[in-house]
Specification:
By secondary structure, the chain is of the alpha/beta class. 39% of the residues lie in helices and 19% in strands. The chain contains 13 helices and 16 strands. Helix 6 (206-215) packs across helix 11 (320-332). It is globular. The mean pLDDT is 91.
């Protein structure tokens, strides 16, 4: 097959987060399986836009903030849209990593108008919204596109219900988890390191991690608590805690390129992501793949899998005491930490390796291209 993947934004700092990583992983896996695949997106931050990601050609066009003040929802790329108008018919199928933005939605409309089969994956980014701009945008663009997609891939039962709340029950819904490449085990040695690797944004709850580090300083004086990620609003408060309690206890290394996040995790002992309403975090999947026990909140889309597999500890949202208690448990009990490490690797291999996800994706493409009815969605993630 000749397949085009479309994402919103590629940048050196990985500002758009998980959906781009998913697109990169899936296109790499499809290319390894012998398919002719390209990845198209807007870009910013590169002096010269890259033209390849490994074996995958990149079609990157400069993006602009067309509507100020609304973040990525107002991000656009007229050049990418023009490229799509000229080239989209060359592909057998288009896979759109779609949000309510002015990059992916217009390209989905192009595919619809030009009668090119397309599949949508929303990564938890489309749900019922109170934003007054969402309703007219949904009526004009989002709902028509969702209804006419050959398949709409969802991550969790909650995302499935959210999509149905937006566009109704006639969507061609099918479950597709995120996947990660097979990776070597963690190479952590010496004193333990507890790692937070995410954007320093309020939704990621970096201050909960930082406060937990402060609370645990007396019990674990030799443990390093490290934060890695770009400042997106919480950096000043994190710096204040570091200045107050000392850089020896808690450190912030700044941003790391997405391609380097897995290598950075290799030096850690435990991964903590206390964010709320995280549909299917790629950093958690990467941590599991190298055998890091994880600490996540109940609203994380992976929480039930992690809990069932005993691959980490699940805590309540916004509860510093529970996060600190979970970290303390893992630091204090090496046997439990080692057992959870093995469970994490096993969970990643059996459920979330790119081998498994790639096979599922090719099956979805075959059903979509042959107009075969998709299986009825059900709550279990199977």
């Amino acid at each position: 097959m000749k397949i085009l993947h479309v994402a919103t934004l590629l940048s050196p700092d990985g500002a758009y987060g998980g959906p781009v990583r998913v697109a990169e992983h899936l296109t790499t896996e499809l290319a390894a399986r012998g398919h002719e695949v390209e990845l198209a997106a807007s870009f910013r931050g590169f002096d010269t836009a890259p033209t390849r990601a490994g074996d995958v050609p990149l079609r990157l066009k400069r993006g602009v903030q067309a509507v100020p003040g609304i973040g990525f929802a107002g991000w656009s790329s007229p050049r990418l849209l023009f490229w799509a108008l000229r080239n989209i018919r060359k592909f057998d199928l288009v896979h759109i990593h779609m949000a309510r933005d002015l990059v992916t939605l217009p390209i989905a409309i192009v595919a619809l108008i030009l009668r090119v089969p397309f599949v949508i994956q929303t990564h938890g980014m489309i749900d019922a919204s109170d934003n007054p701009l969402s309703r007219p945008l949904d009526l004009i663009l989002t709902i028509p596109v969702l209804l006419r997609a050959r398949a709409v891939c969802y991550l969790t039962p909650r995302e499935r219900r959210d999509l149905q709340a937006v566009a109704g029950t006639e969507l061609r819904l099918i479950h597709l988890p995120n996947g990660v490449p097979r990776a070597p085990e963690s190479a952590a040695s010496g004193d333990a390191e507890v790692l937070f690797l995410a954007r320093l944004h309020e939704r990621k709850r970096p201050l909960i991690f930082a406060q937990a580090a402060v609370d645990l300083q007396a019990a674990h004086p030799s443990t390093r608590f490290t934060m890695v990620g770009p400042d997106e609003g919480s950096g000043e408060d994190v710096r204040r805690l570091i200045d107050e309690f000392g850089a020896g206890l808690l450190s912030w290394e700044g941003a790391v390129a997405p391609a380097e996040s897995l290598a950075r995790m290799q030096h850690a002992s435990i991964y903590v992501l206390p964010s709320v309403d995280e549909p299917f975090p790629m950093t958690v999947l990467e941590a599991l793949s190298i055998g890091l026990p994880v600490v996540v909140t109940r609203s994380c889309g992976l929480a039930s899998e992690i809990d069932s597999a005993q691959a980490g500890v699940v805590v309540d949202d916004d509860d510093v005491a529970q996060v600190a208690s979970a970290i303390d448990l893992l630091l204090s009990n090496a046997a439990l930490r080692n057992a959870m490490s093995l469970n994490a690797r096993s969970l990643s291999t059996s459920r979330f390796s790119l081998d498994v996800v790639g096979e599922r994706l090719v099956e979805i493409y075959g059903l979509a291209l042959n107009s075969v009815p998709l299986p009825a969605p059900s709550d279990p993630l199977s």
